[in-house]
Design a protein that fits this description.
Blueprint: H1 3-15, H2 45-50, E1 53-64, E2 70-79, E3 89-95, H3 109-118, E4 121-125, H4 143-166, H5 168-171, E5 173-183, H6 185-195, H7 198-204, H8 206-212, E6 228-234, E7 252-257, E8 267-269, E9 278-280, H9 282-291, E10 296-301, H10 309-312, H11 315-330, E11 337-340
Amino acid sequence: MTDKLLFVLYLYALTIVSCSRKADISAARTTNNTTTVHNITAIDNVSTIYNVNVVKNVKYGYNTNWLDSGEALTLDVYSPLDASLANKYPLVVMAHGGTFVGGAKEDLADVCAALAAKGMIAASINYRLGWNGRGARRCKGDTASLNEAVYRAMQDLNAALRFLTANANTYFVNTNWIFTGGASAGAITALNGAYLTDAYAKVRFKQAYSKLGSLFTADNNLTNTYHIKGICSMWGGIFDPAIITEANALPSIFYHGSDDTIIPAKTGNYLQCPNYQTLYGSIYIYNKLTRMGVPAVAHIYQGEGHAPPEYADNPDFIASTTYCFFDALRSGKPESGMYKQMESNCK
């Protein structure tokens, strides 16, 4: 079995249980007919609860989806009430879960609003969804189609990062501090997308690269660069530990269930199928990063599986602990540690 085939099967296993309990994983998202909003003081229910500003449905790109239809790509931006040109905040861009066929940016509205209330510009993105997953629960299905879905998601996250950093003055972003994150499928996108290069993609994603192009030029014509300073991964994982090196390792905070059979918290075969390659989950990545001396925090809920409800249904806990980790990096006092159940890394 080729590496590429192993990889895409792995991705299905990682994402078959969405981080969002609202996501419909039985049908692909095919359109995104939304209207760009530029009112920086627009408020919705979540932003009212957390007392933050939100700009909804900002168009950051446009591309062809898996059904060869044009799709507008949008995001929501949550910001502190006092954000301004004179008072910019660090940015975190989040990607929702949903097996690469379901979910939406609104699924992470609570987490993003809570992060904004703590003191961040938090953006939740929609990305192109859809692949032919018929028979996937039996470890079958169109794995080439899934491979392309994951590739599109990484392209779209990169496009959103370009857009928000290019428009830093509009959204009051401190471009010195850029973070990414996500849950389940979104965590796969954030983790792997933070490390993959086009040179790697040309080999490991040969078909997708040939069809879809560079990881860094899709969706819009922006060419600005940015530097990711850290990652928030909620029950995510990587497919190749070799992509993390001492030269590129990023500080990361993880959330995971110890008994996750979709993405093992340590290592194991996805979907518990012996013919699939090994997965590398939160504990594995945490151990690798800390051995390198790179700051990392892992929240492991003992006895829970994929998307532990104690974490998934508690946006305030996710936001507060993530903010503490990112803020410690910014203050020059990075932290590392592994925590169980609802223990907090906040000092």
